[in-house]
Amino acid sequence: MKVAVVGATGMVGEVMLKVLAERSFPISELLLVASERSVGKKLVFKGREYTVIGLAEAVAKKPDIAIFSAGGDTSLEWAPKFAAAGTTVVDNSSAWRMDATKKLIVPEINAHTLTKEDKIIANPNCSTIQLVMVLAPLHKKYGMKRVIVSTYQSVSGTGVKAVKQLENEMAGVEGEMAYPYPINRNALPHCDVFLDNGYTKEEMKLAREPQKILDDRTFSVSATAVRIPTAGGHSESVNVEFEKDFELGEVRKLLNETPGVTVQDNPDNNTYPMPIYAHDKDDVFVGRIRRDESQRNTLNMWIVSDNLRKGAATNAVQIAEYLIAEKLV
């Protein structure tokens, strides 16, 4: 496969290259692509040095697959140009997620809907991916009515500038601010920009994307997204009301048997998911599984995942792997 990684010099791009190497992705020719200001930079992949090229040159080379992690504006402008050249694009930005003509894919859940005609494929929001990985098998068995999710999101979800802000504040150094307030020793109920309805874009992604991925609008999601001073890994407190009742043992068994999900749930020896343990892993971790005693048929859970891996790079690479396995590219 001739593969282009667009946004190769960014935080997710770096993880993307790491994941491609780890998973021995079948690459015959690799194109590392970035904006004009990064053209000419040198990057190393599997011990070999590559020179970063620009978007126009990459389109002209007609890669089989282009994995984008370069921001929404770049995706809106360039993904159609790659697609017109015959390239299948897997896009990490929010640009195409809610486009009715584009599919929003978590491979374990809905990769089977992909066809050769899908030339631009959307990768969901990082918080959405870990949420639906756990919700999908439960919804299938018990039927969700309503989901309330509060997120505890790491600064890496904002990008390099935010990680640097946290590091500076921890070291007592004044520097550039990614957020309107300090993040060290703080929690900001402000992920992405505020919308007219009082929610942030991040919160509305969590409300809308699960319905599209599961192809079901009979359940609703209400979200509050909070940024906390962790360097990597997103956590979610999730409350789910089901149509049918459940047994906690059955819930744990169901989740244990779900590919890509690891149950860490033993309060007796302080076993529960934490970002520090999810770091650099591809699984979604779930624990603190307990019945909501205030309402019938309702479950509480705590879900954690590495937002740069399964939440972004790994999910995109898994989509590309599926395309190859099913001969869709």
In DSSP terms (H or I, runs of 4 or more residues), the helix count works out at 10
The amount of helix comes to 25-40%
| Annotation, overall tally of beta strands | 14
Determine the oligomeric state from the structure: single chain
* Helix/strand/pairing category: alpha/beta
The Rg value, from CA coordinates, equals 20 Å
Q: Estimate the global geometry from the Cα principal axes.
A: globular
Mean pLDDT: 97
Order of helices and strands: EHEEEHEHEEHEHEHHEEHEHEEH
How would you write the strand order of the largest sheet? Answer: 2-1-5-6-8-7
Tell me what the structure shows:
The protein is α/β, with parallel strands linked by helices and 329 residues long. Helices cover 33% and strands 23% of the residues. The chain is built from ten helices and 14 strands. The chain has helices at residues 11-22, 55-60, 72-84, 107-110, 126-142, 160-171, 201-213, 248-256, 275-278, 309-325, and strands at residues 2-6, 29-33, 42-45, 48-51, 65-68, 88-91, 103-104, 120-122, 144-153, 220-227, 234-242, 261-263, 284-291, 298-305. It has a six-stranded parallel β-sheet with strand order 2-1-5-6-8-7, sandwiched between helices. Strand 12, helix 9 and strand 13 form a beta-alpha-beta unit. Helix 1 packs across helix 10 and helix 5 (126-142) packs across helix 10. The longest helix is centred in the middle third of the chain and has 17 residues, at 126-142. It is globular and about 60 Å long. The relative contact order is 0.15. The mean pLDDT is 97.
